[in-house]
């Protein structure tokens, strides 16, 4: 093509002939100026547009920014000449991103080419859709791509491209594709005679079936039939034989697809599968001298072994597979060793008996020192999966020895797995404590808080272990260098149980204090805070070292860290109390046993094992970890918060302390930030509560503020409807990206809260964005919605705040005379339709009742303050009507009686709805009590 455009050929030659970059840029700038001038003048024919757009594309490929030629590229797509259309599509796919405004101009042209009878036009359009793949393009053209795929008149190469284009759209925008409606029609193409079409469609079916197993269930039979035709009947064209292996890419995909479904109960299908798998394993028994043949055969063999394990771990095929895998893990080829270890880990995670794998335990342990880190990682996975009660001490001991020389990329995962195995297969509590403390001593910074939390749980809940644990941790603390995690463990255990060993030689209170305090000098503030708690407990049980401990409290009273200072001040005051004071004894009581919760160790390990496009059909961790895998496959989504039995947490609580504690998670979230907007932890704190309380009786103000963002509110209400404007300001010097706002409504049947537009995804530095909420009160509600905001500012940040949308916002003022008010007051009567509370009065600086604050709060809650109703001028009387769209109007009367002499204020609220009365009383009282 370049030879037909001499101007383009010369331009490329000039660029390549430039000796330095400055000359290259000068030539490009000159050409871009000429192109802009020609485009501005207009009157260009198709050839000239094609030539200039080709020059722009070449410039873009070189890495230069181009801002011209987009519209000309759009025009070229509509050309009837192939050469011009090709350049136009090439420019569109390279120069335009999926959200480009120019793409809207080419949708109709692409649709026209999809409907054209020329296969070349169809393929150009499919290429553009697959490469750009925006949401708008997917919504507009997915049906047309599907039509090309299923059309009987489409050529095979068009069907292949259509299937892969649809796969691309599904991966990017799965909600756009009506998967269940198209399932049967797409699966039927797996019977196509052309294996190229079958390969492409099988890729599409694999992606869709993972999320819609039932809709694509018929693909199971199709896959088995195609395997039979390929492996047993050799029904394939010679062009699809890769070094005598029939279409290995298709075989691997079909074998993987079958693992997504539970084994079929159909005897005919099981028989065919047995024949297929037997043939594959027999064909792979003897390796060939041809490397390409071996690679293709191994790819099919390892996937076949995975399917055999999935179908029946007790079948003779699995025994044959174990023999083959033993040979592979000793292979001289790195790839073969890797695949052998990975597949053997699958076998260990599913098989009932680990005896065939344990025969090769020495070889597997030796693989930990393989020259390739990928092989070492798979060896670690396999040891983790094959560990049981019999070999746990050997495997854990070997992992501990290897941990000292392991790659830094492996250490964190190794620490988690060693801790889980030690807890799961502990033969004795003493072995557990010894091993975990050795782990903490050896791994250093790679030990997370979850690991030493577990030691604390076990020791606290096991009386017989406490004295031994205190001695062991004391010995570790005497080392020359001690990691901070060990100091934390030592501070907790010696603080709680140091008195159990204090009378033995070498463990006196002074020696315990000396060994622990010398290690605190290099610890962070959080660790020193923990040690201060240890010292106050020693004050209670070791009076002989009380002067040294009091000296430390005195010293820390003047540090800058607020947490340390507060603890030191409080503990200093406690330590000055008399020895017979019960307060110190009550404060320093031993920790009670911990209740079981979801395992933090397993949760953290699972986060490290992310999904790829083809989800793994098994998990590491032995047979117990895979018990529920078949049931999980048939769920559309997996509830990650409910799986706490994989590590033995379901054992009897009284019978096995390790099992009963397996679910305990001592980690505490740092407020106000939260990990997920789906289950937000609402921000708390003095300022947050004060801001929220003020906005319950104010129309605008600050809702939340920290060093990164400021969130403000402006609102207006009329009847049962309201509008709330949320202003989010970026206080940082950098942009907030991936900005997301979600409203969590606890009671959507009573209150609806909706956004008026999609939130923007970026907030510039020192800028502000606004989100408008529409609110409707359907019926009485008590819990306000939560605003969950997340963004990236260096790291991912989340904050969840209660929005001051309360029931009083939907109230409307009512004017009543004295007679009418008291008549309705008596008519409503007392409890349960009356709510009453007494709280201390609020005084001004001059010592008078702060009636202005009372009126501001009551009036701000949309209650109409009625003057001259109550004989006492200090009393406040108010009335309002709550508007709801489903339950109509609900009246509400309020009477506030402050008494300066008694320094108390009584508030009484009466309403035809007892829920309204209670909620109004709560909303009126809270800000005044805070004041």
Automatic annotation (TrEMBL):
Every Clathrin adaptor alpha/beta/gamma-adaptin appendage Ig-like subdomain domain range: 693-804
Pfam families xref list: Adaptin_N, Alpha_adaptin_C, Alpha_adaptinC2
Residues given in the record as a 1,2-diacyl-sn-glycero-3-phospho-(1D-myo-inositol-3,4,5-trisphosphate) binding sites: 6-7, 47, 51-55
InterPro entries the record matches: Adaptor_Complx_Large_Subunit, AP2_complex_asu, ARM-like, ARM-type_fold, Clathrin/coatomer_adapt-like_N, Clathrin_a-adaptin_app_sub_C, Clathrin_a/b/g-adaptin_app_Ig, Clathrin_app_Ig-like_sf
Residue ranges of coiled coil: none
Subcellular location: Membrane, Coated pit
The keyword Transmembrane helix is assigned to this record: no
Keywords linked to the UniProt accession: Coated pit, Endocytosis, Membrane, Protein transport, Transport
Any GO BP annotation: clathrin-dependent endocytosis
Biological role: Adaptins are components of the adaptor complexes which link clathrin to receptors in coated vesicles. Clathrin-associated protein complexes are believed to interact with the cytoplasmic tails of membrane proteins, leading to their selection and concentration.
Membrane-topology descriptor: Peripheral membrane protein
Entry GO CC: AP-2 adaptor complex
Organism of provenance: Cylindrobasidium torrendii FP15055 ss-10
Gene Ontology MF annotations: clathrin adaptor activity
Protein name: AP-2 complex subunit alpha
Family listed: Belongs to the adaptor complexes large subunit family.
